[in-house]
Write a structure and sequence with these properties.
Order of helices and strands: EEEEEEEEEEE
Number of helices: 0
Number of strands: 11
Shape: globular
Largest sheet: 7 strands, mixed
Distance between the termini: 40 Å
Length: about 120
Amino acid sequence: QVQLVESGGGAVQAGGSLRLSCEASGHIYSSLTMGWFRQAPDKEREAVASIDSLEPTYADFAKDRFIISKDNAKNVVYLQMNSLKPEDTARYYCAARHGTAPSPLDEDNYNNWGQGTQVTVSS
């Protein structure tokens, strides 16, 4: 089992930035694909971005404002969020799986999840 711990959430005004981090630990036996998902109140969880050893994949809404990166040596994934909007308010979850994900933005591809970190963007 892989444990995931997110950090970096908080409250910010529209137009601001936040950087989320997620550290993986536990039984890690190969390269991880790690992703970020989010869930707003009364909405379904949606993918934000994912990254494996090759390249990042972004949801359409995240392509121009968010940057995902990963420190493979430390098994830490980051999500730099810029130009935040009130509609970005959600709980952000880190997810991970060993190896490459067939569909990196499909949550069914991940079997390890963190508890989430809250991001609140005020107008």
